[in-house]
Every structure is written in structure tokens, then in C-alpha cells.
Specification:
Length: 153
């Protein structure tokens, strides 16, 4: 009986450590994510040209499909959906609700990141804001997306 009690106590301690690490990753990721919107995210053309901040990129992406119905506009719009998906994920995470929905939101948001790279590859240059945005998203949602954030049974 003593061995079983010790094993259960060990599992509880490990679960508490894992929860703490996931919480720290979420906080760090959310801070980096929020800051990324104020930084230059992409630049048009060659070095020394005008940059667009993360806020401007988000606005352009979410309104792209309204202005044009070309396939590239749909791809840009889909990459713009990452931010609303992330906000929904964060709301559910802060409320401690919907673990299955949170996981689906995390997987969807992270799987849309390459769409932004497709858009950027068409004549834009990545700047620090975009890198920070991706890092923040990964820190916040990757543990949940890969199943590391499951609650102990």
C-alpha cells in the first residue's frame, strides 16, 4: 500500500509541475503574441521600404475576401482567421472550459500559419513582428494541440 500511495503522490506532483509549465508557456506566449501586433510584421519590396505592423496585417487579412474573391484573397482571409480563433481559444482557456473545443481551435489556428507564409512569399518580407506572432501562437497553443495539456485522469 505504501508503494501505491507514493506513486500516486508522485503523479500528483508531476501533474502540478506540468500544469505550472503549461501556464507559464501560455502567459509568455500571450505576452509575445500581444506585443507582436505593435511590431513591424512584413515589409513590401526591398530593404528600407515601408513596413506593415501586425495590427495592419490583421485588418488587411480579415477584410481581404470582402474586397476580392480571388483564391489568393481567400488564402489571406483564412490566415486572418488565426487571430479570432486564438482569442476564442484564450477565452475558453481562461474560463477553464471546453478542452475538446480548445484543442480543435488550437489545431485549426496553428494549421493556418503556413497560409500566411504563402501570402508573404508573394513579394513581402518577414519582419520581427511576424516571427514574434508565430512564436507567441506556438507557445500558447502547441501544448494543447499536441495533447500535452490534457488533464490527468
Amino acid at each position: 500500500m505504501m508503494i501505491k500511495d507514493t506513486a500516486q503522490e508522485s503523479v500528483r506532483k508531476e501533474s502540478a509541475k506540468g500544469a505550472y509549465v503549461r501556464l507559464m508557456l501560455l502567459g509568455l506566449g500571450a505576452a509575445i503574441y500581444a506585443i507582436s501586433f505593435t511590431l513591424p510584421a512584413v515589409a513590401v519590396g526591398s530593404y528600407g521600404s515601408d513596413s506593415l505592423s501586425g495590427w495592419e496585417c490583421a485588418r488587411i487579412a480579415l477584410t481581404a475576401f470582402r474586397n476580392s474573391h480571388e483564391p489568393s484573397s481567400l488564402i489571406l482571409f483564412a490566415s486572418g482567421l488565426i487571430n479570432p480563433l486564438t482569442l476564442a481559444y484564450l477565452a475558453l482557456r481562461m474560463l477553464g472550459k471546453g478542452p475538446r473545443v480548445r484543442r480543435a481551435l488550437a489545431i485549426a489556428a496553428l494549421s493556418f500559419i503556413p497560409l500566411s507564409w504563402y501570402v508573404i512569399a508573394d513579394g513581402l518580407r518577414i519582419e520581427i513582428g511576424h516571427v514574434a506572432w508565430v512564436v507567441g501562437l506556438l507557445l500558447m497553443m502547441a501544448p494543447e494541440a499536441v495533447g500535452m495539456a490534457r488533464e490527468p485522469r
